[in-house]
Design a protein that fits this description.
This protein is mainly β. It contains one helix and eleven strands. Strands 1-5-4 form a three-stranded antiparallel β-sheet. Strands 2-3 form a two-stranded antiparallel ribbon.
């Protein structure tokens, strides 16, 4: 564990900063010598990666997110060009108000039904 922490610190200081990608631990018990990763990490191409956030292994080993996207929850999503200001959130490349956006009501991608509107992040009937 100490070696992994030292490597992560070196990567961070070198500007790499990707703590979702670490070398796997060798079997310290002297067993079969297999390498393993600590949850939530998964081994891909001899490195431990987080499939939820690693844009080079998004949702599965070798699944690379395209340019202008990032891995969020194991899915490649568009990122916002500029930071969203105030209470707006970035949803699929657009800054939106989750409290009032009918296509992103309370959470990105949560759409209100026909004859509903979004109020305070909750879909409510128009009647």
């Amino acid at each position: 564990m100490g070696d992994r922490l030292a490597i992560a610190c070196i990567l961070l200081l070198a500007g790499c900063g990707d703590t979702d990608r670490l070398p796997p631990d060798a079997d310290s018990e002297g067993g079969d010598g297999e390498e393993e990763c600590t949850a939530p990490m998964t081994i891909c191409a001899e490195a431990c990666v987080n499939l939820e956030h690693d844009s080079g292994n998004c949702g599965g080993c070798g699944v690379v997110c395209p340019i202008l996207t990032a891995c969020r929850g194991a899915v490649c999503v568009r990122i916002c060009d500029d930071p969203c200001l105030g209470t707006r959130e970035c949803c699929d490349g657009e800054c939106v108000y989750l409290s009032s956006d009918g296509n992103n009501c309370g959470a990105c991608g949560k759409r209100c039904q026909i004859l509903e509107h979004c109020s305070e992040g909750v879909c409510k009937s128009n009647f």
